[in-house]
Amino acid sequence: MLQMQKVGQKRCLFLLSIFACLLFFSYGRVLKLKSDDDGRPVYNHTLAITLVEYASAVYMSDLTELFTWTCERCNGLTKGFEVIEIIVDVEHCLQAYVGVAKDLNAIVIAFRGTQEHSIQNWVEDLFWKQLDLNYPDMPDAMVHHGFYSAYHNTTVRPAVLGAVKRVKKSYGENINIMVTGHSMGGAMASFCGLDLVVNEGEENVQVMTFGQPRVGNAAFASYYSLLVPNTFRIIHDHDMVPHLPPYYHLFPQKTYHHFPTEVWVKELSYSNPVICGMEKVCDNTGEDPTCSRSVRGTSISDHLRYFGVELMCETWRRCTIVMSHEMESYSRKDSKGNIFLSRLTVPSTEVIETKTLSKIGISSL
């Protein structure tokens, strides 16, 4: 009798879990971020599972495949999307793209996460990284020099901003801008979103990142949340990277500090198989102790998969780029060998040959 009661309880929990999952995954087919009564943006699950596909696509090393990417598995979520420009900073092993999502009426900017060496070594380096750069024109705001430089001090920033201006000229000034990325790409996405608002005067900027590390201190987080309020950081269960660099609650003004708003995706399981992820929208502090900080960040596997989508390169330890001759009419390169593919610019007379490039990434990250 007791055994039958236990079986019944398990079945009940299983059915409740399925019901909860259906509620979460049927909610929010409207993709744009909304705001509640006090003006704060409202998290949209469907937008999140759409943008994670864009964040995954930027990991492609085959530029031909990326340039023509349509995402057959996305069930129409990315219908009508077109990549407009791909940027590959060969010197620093960085990659990003700018595209147009017509259903969102938005420019989508996606940044790739780390590729230049193993994720384990990258995490170990990140654990000990100190705040080491004052953010320009923001008193007391300090940030991670490596992440800041990856966006601001490479060919990525001017190429992305130039592509955005060309897209707006073709599609209209009122088009929205959505910036996304995973891991280090999420850190770069946050700096890009802030840059678009502060230095480019853009107003309709939304940022959504996946497994993003901390990038600055509490002062920086405060400035950021005021300037780019339409920001959501998705964290998958025990993903270890968002716990880095470490947050020391006893020294809140001297330590790294996340900006809001965190969305913590907590996995539900029944007898081991994962059923779905329950999403909790956290408070406006950026360091809600009841969200991902309530658990130990110990999982690399949770870092590499969000909403069932893999976010990783095909190979580690080298920056590998492949491109077919079919892309020559869209391609150009600068004097440093950095590669650009664009639909909205006249290609350079300097044609890129099909080849594989290997380069060591940014050593300071």
TrEMBL record:
SUPFAM superfamilies the UniProt entry points to: alpha/beta-Hydrolases
UniProt GO molecular function: hydrolase activity
Keywords linked to the UniProt accession: Hydrolase
Record Pfam families: Lipase_3
Entry annotated with the keyword Hydrolase: yes
Superkingdom in the source lineage: Eukaryota
BP terms from Gene Ontology: lipid metabolic process
CDD domains: Lipase_3
Residue ranges constituting the Fungal lipase-type domain according to the UniProt record: 108-247
Plastid in keyword set: no
Name this protein carries in UniProt: Fungal lipase-type domain-containing protein
Species the sequence originates in: Arabis nemorensis
Organism classification: Eukaryota, Viridiplantae, Streptophyta, Embryophyta, Tracheophyta
